[in-house]
């Protein structure tokens, strides 16, 4: 690991989250970890121990789909690659300056977990599970008692927080709700001395432009590997 890069742990973010700030959500062995089932479908190998991926199988169920980030280890029999998702990893180091939001932003609680799950899976199915909200703070915008936009924190490392689940109901797009939520979440973290980062599909040029407009800088291209247990 290159100590000259303050963000080098972001080359394997799930590992450093699961062995640090979020270790209470981890199961696995000393060299391979996964988020508990129902929390997040992500796993990770310790750097230099990619052969350990085979021991992960005892923590996975047949038919289960999960993700690895970064370097893909040699896959054992019983774990197959579905697809590679090339993502841009972006980091924000300066406060987002936006005009004050003319809309109320609400911190979401455990009682909001169902509307949160429903909204995210309507807009971005596949990555967010029933208990993912436990990983960090989630904020939302409501209209007529309906949650119409949200953003939250997913992987958290020492001094770093991943901004995730940035969703707006298609009926409410174009109102800058996502911008206001991202600014609120990022500025709250920056004020606490925590650097926000995020991942966005390389093909999602519109989102990348928005994040760059808000001040995010591209750090690297990093693959997400979607895998399945046979």
From TrEMBL:
This is N-acetyltransferase domain-containing protein. GO terms for molecular function: acyltransferase activity, transferring groups other than amino-acyl groups. Residues 96-230 form the N-acetyltransferase domain. It comes from the Bacteria. InterPro entries: Acyl_CoA_acyltransferase, GCN5-like_dom, GNAT_dom. The lineage of its organism: Bacteria, Pseudomonadati, Bacteroidota, Chitinophagia, Chitinophagales. It comes from Niastella vici.
């Amino acid at each position: 690991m290159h100590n000259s890069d303050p963000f080098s742990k972001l080359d394997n973010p799930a590992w450093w989250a699961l062995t640090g700030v979020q270790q209470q959500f981890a199961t696995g062995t000393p060299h391979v970890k996964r988020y508990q089932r129902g929390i997040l479908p992500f796993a990770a190998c310790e750097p230099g121990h990619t052969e350990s991926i085979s021991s992960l199988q005892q923590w996975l169920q047949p038919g289960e789909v999960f993700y690895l980030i970064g370097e893909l280890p040699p896959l054992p029999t019983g774990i197959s690659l579905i697809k590679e998702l090339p993502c841009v990893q972006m980091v924000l180091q300066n406060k987002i300056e936006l005009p004050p939001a003319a809309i109320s932003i609400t911190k979401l609680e455990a009682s909001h977990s169902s509307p949160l799950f429903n909204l995210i899976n309507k807009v971005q199915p596949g990555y967010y599970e029933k208990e993912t909200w436990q990983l960090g703070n989630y904020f939302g915008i409501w209209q007529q008692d309906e949650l119409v936009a949200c953003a939250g924190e997913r992987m958290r490392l020492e001094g770093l927080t991943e901004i995730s689940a940035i969703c707006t109901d298609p009926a409410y797009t174009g109102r800058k709700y996502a911008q206001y939520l991202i600014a609120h979440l990022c500025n709250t973290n920056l004020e606490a001395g925590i650097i926000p980062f995020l991942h966005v599909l390389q093909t999602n040029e519109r989102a990348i432009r928005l994040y760059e407009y808000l001040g995010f800088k591209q750090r690297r291209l990093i693959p997400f590997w979607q895998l399945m247990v046979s």
